[in-house]
Amino acid sequence: xxxxxGFSDMKESDYINTWTTSTGELRLVPLDQSGGxxxxxxxxxxxxxxxxxxGVNFTVxxxxxxxxxxxxxxxxxxxxxAQIPFxxxxxxxxxxxxxxxxxxxxxxxxxxxxxxxWAPEKGLLFDSSKILLDIYARAVTGQSVWGVKNKxxxxxxxxxxxxxxxxxxxxxxxxEDLVIYELHVRGFTQHPSSxxxxxxxxxxxxxxxxxxxxxxxxxxELMPVFEFDESADERTYKGERLLNYxxxxxxxxxxxxTSYASTLEFNDEGTELKTLIRELHKNNMECILDVVYNHxxxxxxxxxxxxxxxxxxxxxxxxxxxxKYYNFSGCGxxxxxxxxxxxxxxxxxxxxxTTAYHVDGFRFDLASILGRNEDGTPMANPPLLERLxxxxxxxxxxxxxxxxxxGGLYQIGGFNYRGRWAEWNGQHGxxxxxxxxxxxxxxxxxx
Length: 447
Prior knowledge:
Elements: E1 20-21, E2 24-25, E3 32-34, E4 37-41, E5 48-52, E6 55-61, E7 67-74, E8 82-85, E9 91-92, E10 95-101, E11 108-115, E12 118-119, E13 124-125, E14 180-183, H1 185-189, H2 202-206, H3 209-214, E15 219-222, E16 235-237, E17 240-242, H4 271-282, E18 286-291, H5 308-316, H6 340-356, E19 361-364, H7 383-390, E20 398-402, E21 421-424, H8 434-438
Parallel strand pairs: 14-15, 15-18, 18-19, 19-20, 20-21
Antiparallel strand pairs: 1-2, 3-4, 4-10, 5-6, 6-10, 7-8, 7-11, 9-10, 12-13, 16-17
């Protein structure tokens, strides 16, 4: 990996050959130097980090930040080998975008340092000493071995998009014809009796497709597969180590849980999950994801700061007038779902899982939070739920709500926005069981 004294040898196939922006074709040539690297203003519409021809495009946004610095780490390293400030002129509005030339995505991991005001009573928690995970990261590092604690912060990798979907198709099974099997990826095959080659992984689950078909199942609902840290809140009980097994505590909304992969997928994270979904589709079975957009793993005032808090705490979370966290999720914080920036984040995430992973549907954990206003009160026509119902990319995917939250809001029978939403019914047995789904669990108004 070279700095300003030259460029590393890179395969052209690893990079986007041309790029056209809303303002015309961008000529990708270095214009400045920062942190010892050749740089130029980036592609502002391209959120996150993406390989392009000759380098990598990094784009972040923050309403309250005063400056942003890109941190580069050697693979699995703990100390950044390079700190590259975004030049002031690379900021447009609240967006910083920069192309760094000469980077090979196989050789580095990255994070950010963000400077700004520290005023907790106003919800402002900027701290340049914190290493922050890219909110739009496609892969989170250091999480690939189940139960191994990370080193106090998260980093990201740039992910290639070269998966071959072959002749796969979307089954598009009618809601009323679904027979859904809800499962935990690790728990489903972890026991030796499963007989799979890679227990507790996406590969292990793929090997059980014939078994699921023999049961008459035509859709698999995966409990959370977004990256989460199972050891973050670990406890010991009677000498036994207890982890956050279920995964309802997301670290990132765009990255798959790498501990569910049977092999390390450096810069190809998600390949094993995509292969599972492709094979489900070939067997005319759908894949539904259990998604958590109501809170994050950063917790409350006593929780960690690894991403959202450090970029714009007062935008991403519902806060009291004193700057404390509303806790309608029961997990310490509540995502500010109907702020326009957070609306875009959730919509971008769902579009990404639909287009990049070919997911067929989403079951929304504590979905009533998605309809709360910025002061926590329920809204009559929540803009986020309206946008999800009417989004063109999401028009064929199933939208299934767990229509309540931990703040007492219970909306069973009233969540069918624009006729697009179905509900898990909490009044017929345990939510998620096949027995309850048969009796009106999915599809409003079904017999």
